[in-house]
Amino acid sequence: MRLSLVLVLGLVLSIGTLQFAHATSDITISSPATVDTTGHGITSYGVGQEIGIQSVLANQGTQNQKFSYIVQVMDQDGVTDFFGATSASMLGNQSFTATQVWIPKATGTYTVQVFVWDSLASAIPLTDVLQKQITVS
Length: 137
Prior knowledge:
It is a single chain. The chain is α+β, with helices and mostly antiparallel strands. Helix content is 16%, strand content 45%. The chain has one helix at 2-23, and strands spanning 27-29, 33-35, 51-59, 65-74, 80-90, 95-102, 108-117, 130-136. The strands form 2 sheets. Strands 1, 2, 3 and 6 form a 4-stranded antiparallel sheet that branches. Strand 4 (65-74) and strand 5 (80-90) form a beta hairpin. The longest helix has 22 residues, at 2-23.
């Protein structure tokens, strides 16, 4: 009798986990690209240069989805140098190109992180965190 109860509880917990994972999997995000002010890709970076951190978000689901595209740039010591976000909404089966502009103030190696939450207030992750290293000279 106890064994059956444990199996039923385990099944309920597993189903609940699967439902949660499915609810957050409709949004996808591309690896961050770096672009100039005209949207063209760049591969070298200088102090004082406007660097656009750009990703393409896609709503693979059929329902509207609110989201916040978040960019965090950290220096080599792990200190946040920049934090920016764009909040919007996408229709089902729609994509959206999001960009945040960062202007480095010093040379060094930086880690750029991009991710998507449902909103800044509730901070429920909709995607994994993607990273890119940038060296500013």
